[in-house]
Amino acid sequence: MADLEIKNLKVAVEDKTILNGVNLHIKDGEVHALMGPNGTGKSTLSETIMGNPRYTITDGQILLNGKDITKMSVDQRARAGVFLAMQYPREVAGVSNANFIHSAMNARSNGKPVPVLKFLQDLQHNMKFLDIPDEYADRGLNEDFSGGEKKRNEILQMMMLKPSMAILDEIDSGLDIDALKVVAKGINAMRSDKFSCLMVTHYQRLLNYVVPDFVHVMVDGKIVKDGGPELAKELEKTGYEGFEKEAEKG
Amino acid sequence: MTKEQIPLKENDVNNERGSMDKVEPVFSTGVGISEATIKEISKAKNEPEWMLDLRLKAYRKYLTMPMLDFGPDLSALNLDKIKYFQRATDHIARKWSDVPDTIKQTFERIGVPKAERQYLAGSSAQYESEAVYSNLKHDLESRGIIFMDTDSALRLHPDLVKEYFGKLISYSDNKFAALNTAVWSGGTFLYVPKGVHADVPIQSYFRINAGRTGQFERTLIIVDEGGSVNYVEGCTAPNYSEDSLHAAVVEVFVKKDAYCRYTTIQNWSTNVYSLETKRASAGENATMEWVDGNLGAKITMKYPSVYLVGRGATGTMLSIAAAGAGMHQDTGAKMIHMAPDTHSQIVSKSICHDGGRADYRGLIKYTKDAHHAHSHVECDTILMDKKSGSDTFPVNDIETSDGTIEHEARVSKVSEEQLYYLESRGLSESAATQLIIMGFLEPFTKQLPMEYAVELNRLIKFQMQGSIG
Q1: Which range of residues forms the domain containing residue A10?
Q2: What ipTM was reported for this prediction?
Q3: Which end of chain B is less crowded, N or C, counting CB atoms within 10 A of the terminal residue's CB?
Q4: What value does the mean pLDDT take over residues A84-91?
Q5: What phi and psi, each to the nearest 5 degrees, are found at residue A245?
Q6: pLDDT single digits (tens) B311-353
Q7: Interval B447-459: pLDDT, tens
């Protein structure tokens, strides 16, 4: 269960303001899509929810199940249920994918280690589901993975860690259509009343496979329009230009 | 020191030793060194005349040689305050039931019998200055492999010892090789006959257990033509206050088509000076691999070398060093290419934390005969904080024009982006750091027998407790 409410959020990076008062409410079991042109603050919002120390909150609140999480550390937020599938997942040499995921699961299990056999069975099952070859369990974390493999690996982690609030930052970028379908299958498998999701994307394409409950458009650090799935289809025809002009007018 | 001052039985050996095990050396030469001490050691061991002569020659050379003039500061090391010889029991115990109970307890604590049950073909453990427990598995013996402490080898296989002893490392090599030759005691002797493969790792535990006890093991390994062996040596030492010196000499002869891997994990307490001389020769198409971990000691100076003397010989060094508060690891490797088509590789990884210092010091030499030699050197360091430091001192000495050398050196911090990524999955900062460090060391740990890999990870976590939260 996760209810994420963002109130009047203002964020700066190195004294440059990126978010100008964002308001967004994602309720239990809802999937929201956040769309908008490049450089408009979508990733900033994602990273700020996760707690990336590069971003400074200058005003506003992030409430998870009614509790302000802005003072919590990154790992505390993760253990509270927040997950961020990153646009550029990091590589960590010498730490096997399986070892990493198992360590992360143990860190979230309140001191009760996840039994190895059960873990391996689940891992194998989910890797098969996502068409990830077996040997990727023993390879270094994201080490020498292609862009698409990294994205798939983010979804694998999400399926293993079972967060209640997942933020997927351009999970569709750099994917061919087959990979996109696999990623979408993974997201859809997670959908339930216990799973809330914010999908950040530039393109409508992903939303054909994962149909969101709500769509928001962000321009210049503000959400300028809210709607249902039809809003994404409209954007595909008209592009972001109209919104950008409106924003310029201010 | 005069002979009258040498206590034959030190009843007060446990004074001021805190938690040390209550083991009374049966025989000790007390503090300091003189020709009389050396004669006493040799006599107590019933050594042949040539060994006493060699010891005395080495001692006289030792007196004339200067202290090492490079690397860490050794001025606090007082060589007159070292105990040069102690023997814990009168003779080597072959059966476990013959080993004194207090010593057994120590071995049980550091896991010798268990390790043996699980893995070993033979196990010899050095306690203070001489092996008290030495057990060869029957099949090793039946295949002609000789594995015992070097003192016993000198008695039982004098010709073999005489043929190789000091032939790779002369007593005049450096001050500590001279000192070792003068007062050596214990160490491992391992002979693998032609064409024989020792299928399981052969290992030995070493341990210093009395303050001010100098450990001067002398290890001699000969792998005859076409033979192979994987020798594993682990060291642990409990903490105590007095300075101790560990100055081993290790000579390894790898003959034509033979293979030897020598794995060491050194974890002396941080008051120990570990000043070691290790050298191997590799014949035609032979391979010598050093796998060397340095986790402890106040000052470590160790640069294992391989003399590639036969065509097509290969030498490798894979090492890690972890330096914490008050520690200086000055380690590296030397690859001396003396024949055509020889290859070498050095991979050195170090972690410095809490003000520790780890330097790499290495030599690649191609003699004029080393045509088409190839060498690859890689030094990787992680600095955990600004107080810690690291440097590399690579030297290339090249007399041929058709060889190749690659050298890479990197110094880095634990990456903020990696930490953030791992933390975003729920790992605390310290758990994430630990995971990244273990990953950094993985090229080394994956080469270790399982139980050593587990122990190494545990030791490093323990050592770095302060700096990773």
Answers
A1: 4-90+164-249
A2: 0.96
A3: C
A4: 95
A5: -60, -40
A6: 999 999 999 999 999 999 999 999 999 999 999 999 999 999 9
A7: 887 777 877 777 7
Residues of B in contact with A83 (CB under 8 A): 424-425
Could you tell me the residue range of the domain that residue B435 belongs to? 416-469
User: Quick check: B77 contacting A, CB < 8 Å?
Assistant: no
- Could you tell me if B375 and B345 are in contact, meaning their C-beta atoms sit under 8 angstroms apart? yes
CATH of the domain at A40: 3.40.50.300
Q: List, in order, residues 6 or more apart from B250 with CB less than 8 Å away.
A: B187, B219, B220, B221, B262, B276, B277, B278, B279, B304
- For residue A170, being part of any structural domain is answered with yes
- Please answer whether residues B297 and B246 qualify as being in contact, where contact means their C-beta atoms are separated by less than 8 angstroms: yes
- Please, which residues bridge with residue A13 across strands? A16
Supply the angle between the helices B450-463 and B429-445 in degrees, to the nearest 10: 140
Q: And the tokens for B130?
A: 């001489």
Q: Is B219 helix (H, G, I), strand (E, B) or coil?
A: strand
Residues of A in contact with B421 (CB under 8 A): 86, 89-90, 92
Structure tokens at A234: 């409209």
Domain boundary among B247, B279, B302: B302
How many domains does chain B divide into? 2
**pLDDT of residue B418 exceeding 90:** yes
Q: What is the 3-state secondary structure (H, E, C) of B370-420?
A: CCCCEEEEEEEEEECCCCCEEEEEEEEEECCCCCEEEEEEEEECCCHHHHH
Does A153 map to a domain? Answer: no
Write down the pLDDT at residue B127. 46
In Å, how far are A20, B30, B323, B337 from B331, measured between CA atoms?
55, 31, 11, 20
Domain assignment present for residue B214? The answer is: yes
Per the structure, the count of domains in chain A is 1
- Whether residue B395 is contained in a domain is answered as no
Interchain CB contact of B422 with A (< 8 Å): yes
Distance (Å) from the alpha carbon of A73 to chain B's nearest alpha carbon: 9
B60 located within any domain? yes
Structure tokens at B13: 């050996």
| Domain stop point among B302, B333, B362 | B302
CA proximity to B455, closest of B445, B465, B442: B445
